[in-house]
Amino acid sequence: MHTATLLNNGSVLLAGGLGSGGLSLGSAELYNPAIGTFTSTGSLNTTRLEYTATLLNNGMVLLAGGLSSSGSLASAELYNPATGTFTSTGSLNTVRYLHTATLLNNGMVLLAGGFGSSGALASAELYNPTAGTFTPTGSLNTVRYLHTATLLNNGMVLLAGGQGSGGP
């Protein structure tokens, strides 16, 4: 339940997830495919699993939402590969996990659907990396989580499948 994000330098950031004893993790490491090794990097500010990690145009990674050992999260943080550190950024408007995050052509990130405190979500929001803020945007036609999101050539995002309020 961790994420693996390919960074611009070719290494892979592995962060968070589920540890022994069923607790969410705050650790992170980098995989170097050239030599096949893993090395520790900075720790997340918040332990999390079932969240999204999105490589931004500036080379940083946005980690958003998810679950911690204490419940669902509205927090987000940025990983800076140049310094190996995680810093907090704006908070989501809605707690969500099992959602999607899609980097749009304009550099913003669309977070859509997921599961929140009231169940499956139809809400969506945009992350603006310049301002470090999340803003609500249009809602999905159908509540869904565990779905896919694909950026199409025309700039639109196709959300498909997943589970809704009635299950799969």
What labels would you give this structure?
168 residues, mainly beta, four-stranded antiparallel β-sheet, 0% helix, globular
What is the overall pLDDT average?
A: 96
Q: Sheet with the most strands?
A: 4 strands, antiparallel
- Estimate the helix proportion, in percent: under 10%
* End-to-end distance: 20 Å
Radius of gyration: 15 Å
Note the overall shape. globular
H/E element order: EEEEEEEEEEEEEEEEEE
Spatial order of the strands forming the largest sheet: 1-2-3-4
Could you explain how this protein is built, in words?
With 168 residues, the protein is mainly beta. Helices cover 0% and strands 41% of the residues. The protein has a 4-stranded antiparallel sheet, with no helix packed on it. Strands 5-6-9-10 form a 4-stranded antiparallel sheet, with no helix packed on it. Strands 11-12-15-16 form a 4-stranded antiparallel sheet, with no helix packed on it. Strand 13 (115-116) and strand 14 form a beta hairpin. The two termini are 20 Å apart. The model has no long low-confidence stretch (mean pLDDT 96).
Summarize this entry quickly.
The protein has strands at 3-6, 12-15, 28-32, 37-40, 52-55, 61-64, 67-68, 71-72, 76-80, 85-89, 100-103, 109-112, 115-116, 119-120, 124-128, 133-137, 148-151, 157-160.
